[in-house]
Specification:
The complex is a heterodimer of chains A (250) and B (438). Chain A has 250 residues and is α/β, with parallel strands linked by helices. Chain A has helices spanning 30-51, 97-107, 137-144, 148-152, 166-173, 185-201, 216-234, and strands at residues 13-22, 56-66, 68-71, 79-80, 124-129, 154-160, 179-182, 206-208. The longest helix of chain A has 22 residues, at 30-51. The radius of gyration of chain A is 19 Å and the shape is globular. Chain A starts with 12 loop residues before the first strand and ends in a 16-residue tail after the last helix. Chain B has 3 domains: 9-94, Phosphorylase Kinase, domain 1, CATH 3.30.200.20; 102-296, Transferase(Phosphotransferase), domain 1, CATH 1.10.510; 300-437, Tumour Suppressor Smad4. In chain B, 24% of the residues lie in helices and 25% in strands. A 6-stranded antiparallel sheet of chain B has the order 1-2-3-4-6-5, with helices on one face. In chain B, strands 18-17-26-25-22-23 form a 6-stranded antiparallel sheet, with no helix packed on it. At the A-B interface, α4, β8 and α7 of A face β12 and α7 of B.
């Protein structure tokens, strides 16, 4: 056997993609249905991104919260994209966002979910919610804000059909511009796909001179604005014409 | 006009329309489509809106200039024609990548479901390295720099080492930067720290990273020290910019490979010839990385890779490829058995061990001709006595063989001269290129 057959993949840093999914009562019906469908389709999309990514190995952890919270992915920790089996989420109960943040805070640790021999990049945390918290969420938020992993994370919220408390989302993301406005379920689905892909590719883009010293909060807002542009382009937003397009009709 | 759909047409600046046939894929800057133009298929790179942040005009002009100037070598998938500007968006066409080429990334990654691409031979690795180096040498010689060398730009055929270099849209003339800095892990330290825009010198750092990874897969700067629990921008700046440390730096062991992730390094670092390792050690020494000493130039890389290519032979014991680094005793990298090389040929700049399978290239005799392709000769074993070696003239020119007694004999193309000490062989028209058998 030739030595060349002994080549193994290059070590990659792990980038964990956390989804925090609101499964409270108000998410019932088409909202949770859309989230389920979007997530199911999102996994193969992410696999494509991951296959072409030599910079980061992408892992996923999904936390649902309503009255209490629970991990949808195995409680043992984030899983590789090949190992995700999506089981449809059910909606019902309150919106105990603070409790979810406390649970997430516990797991954002090298001793818990973020243990990697090959190192890690800061995680990406995507929040999907359609309503204001019903618990004492500030306790959870204040606690997690002390966590270095959270501080360096890309944090983006999707406000589903404008049902959320935007100021809560802004405090979570650290930047009011890191919020995506999913006006309807069709947009919600597109946004889940595009934001997941954009965020996963984040580490492996060539950089322009303008984006080397930006903060994680600014990076989050930049991803959001790119996603909004993508969605607009998909929807065939009206093309703006400058004078050159009109020619000279004198 | 944002993204295109199958059936859409785009007007080309110098006449005609490109019709979209399919989407190839999408990236950060734009989407690539298969299009039909003038009855032929091309790839169209169509930029996303607003990617140039106000530098659209310069970028468009630069593309047009590059098209006019033409590709530095055949290994570039160079822009061939630019589209008209449609509501602020534009693109360019290039040839479609043929089958059999894989993105360099696929040589680095792999999983249960997606097999890692591997070179079929060390000869293919040497050829891939030579093709890449020569491509950037020609690019730099024509006054340009690439500015964004990374794993996504190279498509390589693992069977024969043929290379195609894509994404040539950031290529700019000396002194010009269109806003691109490059990709982290490939950017030169002075670009990471913001001291310099990318240029020819930063290309040379990136080239060294690409060459290292062709041979060793792992990244040269990623070891214990540069693997923090969480890589942040501040730390990236430190480990790739301010204080990069080569994982195998002989005088600085702070950043040795992380145990358990270093299998490729353990397998391949010990087997490659020392002269290749020495050049990597120099390229990734602190002084060279931090530009206190000059970067390794393309010519130096070509010299070692041509020397390496000439050293790849089939082991007489196990029949696998191995390297003979020197005259005398060598150890097969596969079966570890001894291979004795009785003679070598000494040209003015390189000495090539003479063993069946070794190829003498024009580069060995005369690198100033800038010819990276022409084979002059090959070492063969005598069919009736395999321990007697000869050099077969593969060129179209009759060689002159100077014997130790002062006489001279011609060697016609296709003929073989026995390997004998002190024979001097003129295998080009220039007597200065002669090689002496030692």
């Amino acid at each position: 056997m030739s030595l060349l057959e002994e080549i193994t993949p290059s070590p990659r840093k792990v980038m964990t993609l956390f989804y925090l999914v609101d499964t409270s009562g108000s998410m019932g019906g088409s909202r949770i249905g859309t989230v389920n469908a979007a997530m199911e389709e999102c996994i193969p999309l992410l696999k494509e991104v991951a296959a072409a990514n030599d910079d980061a190995e992408i892992k996923v952890a999904i936390l649902q919260f309503s009255s209490g919270c629970s991990w949808v992915t195995p409680a043992s920790g984030p899983v590789g994209l090949d190992d995700i089996i999506w089981n449809d989420l059910q909606a019902g109960g309150m919106t105990e966002f603070g409790g979810a943040l406390l649970e997430l805070d516990k797991k954002l640790s090298r001793n818990e979910y973020l243990n990697s021999q090959t190192g890690a990049y800061a995680p990406v945390i995507l929040l999907l919610s359609d309503g204001g918290p019903t618990d004492n969420w500030e306790v959870g938020l204040n606690k997690i804000k002390e966590n270095n992993w959270f501080k360096h994370a890309i944090k983006i919220a999707i406000d589903i059909e404008s049902g959320s408390d935007r100021s809560v989302l802004a405090q979570f993301t650290g930047n009011p511009e890191a919020i995506l406005d999913a006006k309807d379920t069709a947009t919600l689905k597109k946004m889940i796909h595009k934001v997941s892909v954009r965020a996963s590719e984040f580490q492996s883009h060539s950089k322009a001179s303008s984006d080397t010293v930006t903060s994680p909060d600014q990076d989050s807002a930049d991803i959001v604005s790119a996603v909004v542009k993508d969605v607009d382009e998909d929807n065939g937003a009206p093309v703006s014409a400058d004078d050159n397009d009109w020619g000279n009709w004198d | 006009m944002g993204s295109l759909k199958v059936g859409d047409t785009v007007k080309m600046k110098y006449g005609g329309e490109a019709k979209v046939l399919a989407e190839f894929g999408s990236g950060g800057q734009g989407t690539v489509y298969k299009v039909s133009y003038n009855g032929k298929e091309y790839a169209l790179k169509w930029y996303h809106k607003d990617v140039f942040k106000g530098k659209e005009k310069e970028f468009y002009q630069n593309l047009e200039n590059n098209i006019q100037k033409g590709a530095p070598t055949k290994d570039f998938l160079w822009p061939l024609g630019v589209t008209e500007v449609h509501a602020g968006v534009f693109g360019y066409i290039m040839d479609v990548r043929p089958a059999g080429y894989y993105e360099l990334t696929e040589f680095f990654v792999g999983s249960k479901k997606q097999k890692q691409v591997r070179f079929k031979s060390f000869n293919a690795i040497a050829d891939a390295a030579i093709n890449i180096i020569q491509a950037f040498r020609e690019l730099h010689n024509s006054g340009y720099s690439y500015q964004d060398i990374n794993n996504g730009n190279f498509f390589i055929n693992p069977e024969n080492g043929k290379v195609l270099i894509c994404d040539n849209d950031n290529v700019s003339p000396f002194g010009v930067n269109l806003g691109i800095l490059g990709k982290q892990r490939y950017m030169a330290p002075e670009v990471v720290t913001g001291k310099n825009d990318p240029d020819k010198q930063s290309d040379r750092f990136s080239l060294a990273v690409i060459l290292f990874r062709l041979l060793f897969i792992n990244h040269p700067l990623e070891g214990k020290r540069s693997t923090p629990p969480c890589m942040t921008k501040e730390l990236e700046r430190r480990y790739y910019g301010e204080e990069p440390v080569f994982v195998l730096d002989p005088s600085d062991d702070r950043n040795r490979p992380v145990p358990g992730t270093d299998k490729n390094l353990k397998t391949f670092w010990p087997v490659y010839p020392q002269y290749i390792k020495d050049l990597f050690i120099r390229a990734f020494s602190s002084d060279v990385m931090l530009k206190k000493a000059p970067r390794v130039i393309e010519k130096e890389w070509l010299d070692v890779f041509f020397r390496f290519k000439a050293s790849i032979v089939k082991c007489p014991h196990c029949k696998q490829e191995t390297f003979i680094a020197q005259q005398g005793d060598n150890t097969c990298i596969e079966c570890k058995k001894k291979i004795t090389v009785p003679n070598a040929i000494q040209f003015s700049t390189v000495t090539v061990p003479l063993y069946p399978g070794t190829k003498l290239m024009m580069w060995h005799a005369d690198s100033s001709q800038n010819d990276v392709e022409t084979k002059l000769g090959e070492i063969v074993a005598n069919p009736s006595n395999p321990n007697v070696f000869g050099i077969k003239n593969l060129s179209t020119l009759s060689w002159k063989v100077n014997l130790p007694d002062g006489s001279q004999k011609p060697l016609a193309p296709g003929a073989v001269v026995p390997v004998k000490k002190d024979f001097t062989i003129e295998c080009t028209t220039n007597p200065k290129d002669a090689g002496k058998i030692i």
